[in-house]
Each structure stands twice: as C-alpha cells, then as structure tokens.
Design brief:
This protein is α/β, with parallel strands linked by helices and 348 residues long. The chain folds into 2 domains: 2-229 and 302-342, Luciferase-like domain (TIM Barrel, Alpha-Beta Barrel), CATH 3.20.20; 233-301. Helices cover 45% and strands 14% of the residues.
C-alpha cells in the first residue's frame, strides 16, 4: 500500500508547513501530496507552488470543489498543473455540500449525482483534447440561443497539452449513491472517515457501482484520507485528532444535512456525532471535540503509539486500500517520517 499525505488548507496547515512537509515527503519517497479547499485557500494556487518545490512526488487535489468552477476551467487547471509538475498531477473532485455550494458559491445543491457525472465527462473530453460539444441536463457547451446565448459560440479544443495521456480523476464520496457512482466512473476514490473495521459500509457501494459499469475494483485507486497522530500515550494521540473530526462533523454541513454525521451514524456512533455537531453549532468547539468517543475516533483516524503504526496501516491494506492519504496531526513532520519508516521507504 502506498502512503501519501494530505495537507488540506489554511489554517490547519500554514503555507510554510505545506511547503516544508511536501518537500520532506518528496525526499522520503512518499507517494503523493494532496491539497484541498473549503472556503478559504484554493487548491490550484498551492499545488502550482508545490509543483515548483518538489521533484518526484505525485500532486493531487483533494478536493477541487465542483461548484467553484466550470468544468472547462477545472480541466485547464488540471492540464496546467500536469505540465508544471511534469506529469505528476491527480485530479480529485468533490461536489461539496449544500452549506458550501449554496452558502459560498451561490450554486444550488441540486442533482449532485447528475452534476458530478457530467462534470467528469466534460473534464475528460477536454483533457483528451477533443473538440468540446456537450448537451446534457446540467451543461450545454457551446451555449446555444435556446439557453440565452448570442449564438456565436463555437466548439473549441484545449490548446494546452497535458504530459500524461490520461490524468486520473478521483472523487471524494461517502454517501451510498455517490460512492456507487465513483465505482462506475472514477479512476480513484478519496473517502474520509473510512473505517477498516467495517469496510462493507462503504465498500459494498463501491463494488456495486464498479460491477454496474463492468469494472473491477482493481481499476480504482482506493485512497482513504485518514488523520494520523502518533504519541506514546494513545489518549493524547486521540486528543490531537479531535479538532479535525469535530470540524467535519460539526462544521462541514448543515444541521439536518451533514454527510459525515450520517456516515458516523452508519458506523454506530450517531449519539457521539450528533452531540459533537450540536456543540459545534452552539459555538463550543472544546465541548464538540470532547463529545467524540474513543470508539468514534478510532473508527475514523489512526491514533497510535510509534510501535503500533505498522499494524494500524496494515488494517487498511488488508481491506483493499491501494493508497493511504494521511493527514498528519500533532508533530506533523514526525508523523511524515514515521509513515515513511513504517512503509520501508525512509531515505535518510
């Protein structure tokens, strides 16, 4: 199993930390570095910077938000990043949720499945440097007079030429239908809060989607995004990941629509997840973090002593993960070094 690192967005990681940790991971031989976006730092700018700071490590967006950009703009960014990194780019996409889509971008959170499918189709067409003509329920390109256009638009083809023949497209999905769609159309899957002790909760949907499309799971890079904290005291390691999980359970969604709370409930941790969400909504971050039970934390993160890291990593490999994308918590550089050592690639 390959191991990469997830360097998220500010303020969880400072710009200096993103550079230093990406360079360290590159030097140590880790697989990839992933940059995300929420409603602050964007992913494209930071990935462009890291393309110039690193030499061999893969660079991925984890995720670029679908409501943030037209699909053609995303395809241009992907092509640019692939050229700037000399063929190291991986495009991760996510539809986000109603809070961000509507509250930040002003884009209705309607028909997310259809929007994702068409978005991927358009991006793939552009990156393949085919002349773009798309007539769907979500996008019509070129826009025609029936949609209020002047009628002067014409089909175009991407001017840039990506280095890779096919830039891999990953989807971040945890809902049953969206995970199934990932199995149908994506090259990779970036689930958050994936529990290797209960793999069927998410894997059954992925497997069903792949089967529907006549695909094998071997065609999909299964790449769970997992917060990792390492400390001699496991209780302290759990404390280091509490803010991360509390943020996603409490802030990444609305009270009645939070995909992470729904997933925690499917794992059997509904009471803890809802208590965390309610405390976060009330403005009490500490109460929200402390509402998380050890069982919920251990289902969604790796909190371990140094000696236990290899065993925790192997649990993901055993259920079919191809890549583990680690969010380093606590002493972040030490976590990156430990991950490299545990996977036998430490180059120091």
């Amino acid at each position: 199993m390959r191991v990469g690192i997830f360097l998220a967005y500010w303020p969880w990681f400072t710009p200096a930390e993103q550079i230093d940790l990406a360079v360290l991971a590159d030097e140590l031989g880790l697989d990839s570095v992933w940059i995300a976006e929420a409603w602050g730092q964007d992913a494209v700018s930071v990935l462009g910077m890291l393309a110039g700071k690193t030499k061999r490590i893969g660079l991925g967006s984890g995720l670029m938000q679908i409501p943030a950009r037209q699909p053609t703009a995303t395809a241009m960014a992907a092509a640019s990043l692939d050229v700037l990194s000399n063929g190291r780019f991986r495009l991760g996409l996510g539809v986000s949720g109603p809070q961000v889509s509507e509250g930040w971008y002003g884009v209705p959170f309607t028909r997310p499945m259809a929007r994702t499918r068409e978005y991927v189709e358009i991006v793939r067409t552009v990156l393949a440097r085919k002349t773009l003509q798309h007539a769907g329920s979500e996008w019509t390109i070129p826009l025609d007079e029936a949609h209020g256009a002047t009628g002067y638009g014409k089909p175009l083809k991407l001017l840039a030429r990506p280095v890779q023949q096919r830039i891999p497209i990953y989807l971040g999905a945890i809902g049953p239908k969206s995970v199934a769609q990932t199995g149908e159309i994506a090259d990779g899957w970036l689930p958050f809060m994936f529990n290797p002790a209960q793999p069927k909760v998410l894997m059954d949907s992925l497997r069903a989607g792949a089967a529907k499309a006549g695909r094998s799971l071997s065609e999909i890079d299964i790449a769970p995004v997992v917060t990792v904290a390492i400390h001699e005291d496991v209780a302290e390691a759990r404390n280091q990941v509490r803010p991360w999980l509390a943020f996603y359970l409490g802030s990444m969604g609305a009270k009645n629509k939070n995909f992470y709370v729904e997933l925690a409930s499917r794992y059997g941790h509904e009471k803890s997840a809802i208590a965390c969400q309610e405390a976060m909504i009330s403005g009490d971050r500490m109460k929200a973090a402390m509402a998380l039970t050890d069982e919920l934390i251990d289902s969604a993160a790796i909190c371990t002593t140094p000696d236990g890291l290899s065993q925790r990593l192997s649990a993901y490999a055993e259920i079919g993960a191809n890549t583990l994308v680690a969010i380093p918590a606590g002493d972040k550089a030490a976590v990156v070094r430990a991950l490299a050592a545990a996977t036998g690639i430490d180059r120091d």
